[in-house]
Amino acid sequence: MCSLRSPTTSSYGKTDERAKWRKYPRILEAMEKKGYFDMTPEERIKKALEINQKLVGGGIGDNQAEIDALNEIRGGGIIA
Amino acid sequence: MNARIFPFVGSPLPDIVYLDTSFVREVYNPHAVPIRQAQCAAFLDRLTRAGVMMVINSWVIQELRHVILVGVYRQEALRRRMGWLELFRHDKSFMPTVIQSIQHVETLVDAQPLIMRLPVQLDLATDAVALDLMRAYNLDAGNAYHIALARAEQVNSFVTLDQGFGAVDALNLYTCHPTLLQAQTTATEILPFATPTLP
After folding, report:
1. The domain spanning residue B31 has which CATH number?
2. ipTM over 0.85
3. Residue B182 region by backbone torsions, left for phi larger than 0, else alpha for psi between -120 and 50, else beta
4. Would the CB atoms of A66 and B163 count as touching at under 8 Å?
């Protein structure tokens, strides 16, 4: 038996998704502004994985200097 | 350790995590220890595939901007055999590089559909909670504000490489920090969000 509507792409599905996040009002607001609900879960994950790849190693600057700087403002404890 | 410590692999996942500066920094730095960066990158992908909401805020952003600035300046200062602060005070020519790097990282973070960047609402109540956390767990101010701000959003799961969070009750910590992992939990469930009574 097949479903007449997809829970991920219909407006019904989107409403369901919003309900899950209603107890986090500021996060929900950020999600709305970012267009989170305009994408299907599959689209989100695909795009997110692409961006993760660009993020890994995508900065510049000395590694140890960054660790030391963060340790100074955190009182130590960050992996060396 | 009072926080519940979970490894990156095989652990149960919450609906929302707070991405600590130490984790984000480890992901984007091009000179990070390769095996550790690979662990962090794999966990970021694991969170993504599971549809876990990842939260950062302006407190994380200001720390990232600071460490990027120091990273760029100290790299150049080492070549000139001087301190980075001395170079920063007298030579602003590296600031465009700093700004470009900050914008590059933040643009990617903002484009990632599962990472939500929240504005920080610092107020007297947050100040009071942070001070209570400092007192109760002997925390640095930075760590205390991260926890106070996460709690304000009802988030108690952190992805971090900072062992400073380990002493805090009612937190779930996801990490590859070897010291934290010595106290790794055998629990199969995460701690639900609660605002505990401070010791």
Report:
1. 3.40.50.1010
2. yes
3. alpha
4. no
